[in-house]
Design a protein that fits this description.
The protein has helices spanning 2-11, 18-46, 50-53, 56-83, 90-123, 128-131, 134-160, 185-217, 224-260, 263-279, 284-292, 296-304, 309-312. 77% of the residues lie in helices and 0% in strands. It has 317 residues and is mainly alpha-helical. Helix 4 runs parallel beside helix 7 (134-160). The longest helix is centred in the last third of the chain and has 37 residues, at 224-260. It has 13 helices and no strands.
Length: 317
């Protein structure tokens, strides 16, 4: 849970000096800005050509990248606010946390839809164009957002049961984080149950899709190259899901480290883990698809290099 991790990191910021806090803030902010730039270029690339706007798997990839990019930006914003010891009111914090939670839940559900799309492409190639259309893709994305939004609505309703009228002020005493918004005990139990349900269901669907594609790849009537690429893509989806789920295991590891390490050492280790566990995976989608896909790669590299090819060919428009 990225916000829980950020809370523990930044709560220990009071044990660090100004120079060290600035160093660790740079450690997280610099790679975050690089990945936000890469993701932003990838999002622009996916809207730059009709082939991307009219192909289902590119539309799904855009939805996945959009959620990952926004979540990365929100997570880094919460980290910087906490590192600067800036507190906010419960309503403002609640909006940021719920928006971050929404983006967190979009990613695994989108990976499920992308895996199913590859399964249909390999196992039912003749019906793929009929089943996977622009309209059905839009409906799938709408269902993903609706399901995730319903979960956020439930969380908000549970949060509103807290007696805010008994507080002297709505100003928070602690930093804004996911854990800080668990105002009633039921919120924590619901969060754990929902997380387990989503990732278990998504894992089962993606694994079944991988098995189906693998079996189809051995069939004599299947295009071996396409089936192999689809199988690798589904496997990458499973790895992405595992990296997203790693935040839960990461929290358990940090709880164990917290008991045996000094607070300042724990904060330093946790900041480094935050970079590799939460920041790096948010750029994986852009790197995986941008470098593997032969259609995306030249256009992506062209935009990443700030269109340097224009200077090499001055006579072309």
């Amino acid at each position: 849970m990225s916000n829980q991790s950020q809370t523990n990191i930044t709560f220990g910021a009071q044990y660090q000096g100004s120079l060290e806090r600035a160093l660790f803030s740079t450690l997280t902010t610099l790679p975050c800005c690089i990945f936000l730039y890469i993701n932003g270029v990838m999002l622009y690339t996916l809207r730059s050509k009709p082939v991307f706007r009219e192909t289902s798997r590119y539309i799904l990839l855009y939805n996945l990248l959009f959620a990952d990019t926004l979540q990365l930006a929100l997570s880094q914003l919460l980290y910087i606010l906490a590192a600067c010891r800036i507190t906010m009111t419960f309503p403002v914090c609640g909006i940021l946390i719920m928006l971050n939670n929404l983006m967190t839940q979009i990613s695994p559900l989108t990976l499920v839809v992308m895996s199913l799309e590859r399964y249909v492409a390999v196992c039912y190639p003749l019906r793929h164009a009929v089943i996977i259309t622009i309209r059905s893709t839009g409906v799938s994305i709408a269902v993903v957002w609706a399901f995730s939004s319903l979960n956020i609505l439930i969380r908000v309703l549970m949060m509103l049961t807290f007696p805010f009228e008994d507080l002297e002020s709505l100003q928070m005493n602690d930093f804004c984080s996911k854990v800080a918004m668990f105002l009633v005990p039921m919120s924590d139990h619901y969060d754990k149950a929902y997380t387990c349900f989503v990732f278990l269901s998504a894992g089962v669907v993606i694994i079944c899709s991988y098995i189906g594609v693998t079996i189809a790849a051995r069939s004599a009537s299947t295009d071996k190259v396409s089936a192999s690429k689809a199988r690798n893509t589904v496997l990458l989806h499973l790895i992405q899901l595992g990296l997203t789920l790693s935040s839960t295991m990461h929290s358990l590891l940090l709880l164990a480290l917290m008991r045996i390490l000094k607070r300042i050492v724990f904060v330093r280790i946790q900041t480094v883990l935050f970079v590799f566990v939460f920041i790096l995976p948010r750029c994986l989608s852009a790197l995986i698809y941008g470098l593997r896909d032969q259609t995306i790669r030249p256009i992506l590299m062209y935009h990443l290099c700030c269109r340097l090819k224009l200077s090499a060919v001055p006579g072309r428009s």
